[in-house]
Amino acid sequence: MSQQNVTLVQSIYEAFARGDVPAVLALFADDIEWIEADHFPYADGSPYRGPQAVVNGVFARLGAEWDGFSVQPKELLDAGDRVVALGTYRGTYKATGKPVQAQFAHVWSLRAGKAAKFQQYTDTQQFAQAVGAVAEGAHA
């Protein structure tokens, strides 16, 4: 089942890259738990529960607030009922014009052929600088 889990997570990233949110949501469990990294701009509602909460709290905001935001997984690591994705975020925050290029690790938990949990780890300092929450060079 673990290779199927890797394939499922890869399908999520591919659908997201195409902008096909319905295809992404079709791969989420009805009770998905979505956890943004502490201090990430969209952690204010974390953990999000259910696909619609993820759309409203994360996906819609990414689309509205960023130009060219992309999630580029470089490696997917098979961990049985979990898949770890390592990659890079890229985008430009519209309100400030500041770009971000930050590494991420995502831990996906899978159940019955669906994504049941998502945990994000990333450099939140870069995002805070891009959105203007802290000055560049400052430490949060």
UniProtKB/TrEMBL annotation:
Pfam family, one: SnoaL_2
Organism domain of life: Bacteria
Sequence ranges assigned to domain SnoaL-like in this UniProt record: 9-116
InterPro entries referenced in this protein's UniProt entry, alphabetically: NTF2-like_dom_sf (IPR032710), SnoaL-like (IPR037401)
Protein name, as recorded: Nuclear transport factor 2 family protein
Classification lineage: Bacteria, Pseudomonadati, Pseudomonadota, Betaproteobacteria, Burkholderiales
